[in-house]
Amino acid sequence: MKRTMKIVHLSLAIAGFALVACSGGAEEAKAPAADPAIAEAQHRVRAMEDSLSDAAAFDRRRLMALRDVYVAYADRFPSDSLAPDMLRKAASTSGDLAEHEKAINLYDRLIKNYPDWPRTADAHYFRAFEIENGLGKKGEAKAAYEEFIKKYPDNQFADDAAKMIEYMNLTPAELIEKFEKMNAGGGEEGGAGR
């Protein structure tokens, strides 16, 4: 049952990451860097990302190395337009590596250092997600989701955050029953899901 709950949460996270990955960031990556050191660092990041995407199996060491390159980029070029996205990627990768405290710390750093970055609001949501699913601190996660909803009511993840609050209080059996009803057309969502 606990495994089912984690699968549901992971599915929600993957959907969220897919939305984030598909929006923004592409225009920043196309612009050539004026500083040769930044251009070289960007090339290194892209090469590591490409090598990991070509890998047939999960490679924890290479993923950790990529995360460290993201952080090093943000450390070395904190005023570069890609620095906040590098922190976002590092935080997400840390979550994938089950290094949840590190992920939360990286989201905190992004939020503190880049409050005006267009996707900082998303970092608030994923920070709350890590607190709930990575650390299992439901009370702290609920407060983080509520703060996110209050601060960013129109964000693409605001509805998801409200659902996460609703679902975190359900037992695995209740959660399965709720999703079965939704899939059968008898749920709140009219069977359409999200």
Please describe what this structure looks like.
- This protein has 194 residues and is mainly alpha-helical.
- It folds into 2 domains: 1-24 and 118-180, no CATH class; 25-97, no CATH class.
- It has 10 helices and no strands.
- The chain has helices spanning 2-22, 26-30, 36-54, 60-76, 83-96, 100-113, 120-134, 138-151, 158-168, 172-184.
- It is globular.
- It starts with a helix and ends in a 10-residue tail after the last helix.
- Residues 1-30 and 187-194 have low confidence and may be disordered.
List the helices and strands and how they pair.
Elements: H1 2-22, H2 26-30, H3 36-54, H4 60-76, H5 83-96, H6 100-113, H7 120-134, H8 138-151, H9 158-168, H10 172-184
Helix pairs in contact: 1-7, 3-4, 4-5, 5-6, 5-7, 6-7, 7-8, 8-9
By DSSP (H or I, 4+ residues per run), the number of helices equals: 10
User: Share of helix among residues?
Assistant: over 70%
Q: N-to-C terminal Cα separation, in Å? A: 23 Å
Number of domains: 2
Oligomer: single chain
Secondary-structure element pattern, one letter each: HHHHHHHHHH
Structural class: mainly alpha
Largest sheet: none
Low-confidence stretches: 1-30, 187-194
Using only CA atoms, what is the Rg?
Answer: 18 Å
